[in-house]
Write a structure and sequence with these properties.
The chain is α+β, with helices and mostly antiparallel strands.
Length: about 100
Amino acid sequence: MVKHIILWQFKDELLDETKKSLGKEIKEKLEALQDRIPGLIDIHVQADILPSSNADLMLDCSFTDEEALNGYAVHPDHVKIKDGIIGPNVKSRVCVDYVE
């Protein structure tokens, strides 16, 4: 199994209300990919982040193997979310992929 973890920080100029709304929308859209991406075992987005954190949003998902992760990266449904809502609103992204 391959784990794929991402931490995002929203752009500084976004209002707190906008960040909360975006977090909920991103969570809804990404978690809706469950059962639509081959090899995606599970997908969870944490949008209710405590103030002590230095990230605004976390993605935690599991894939059957590295090939499935690579397929997810280019899958049109994922790319639409990544390019349409995530990319324009985040200032930083940290990613860790590993075999579990």
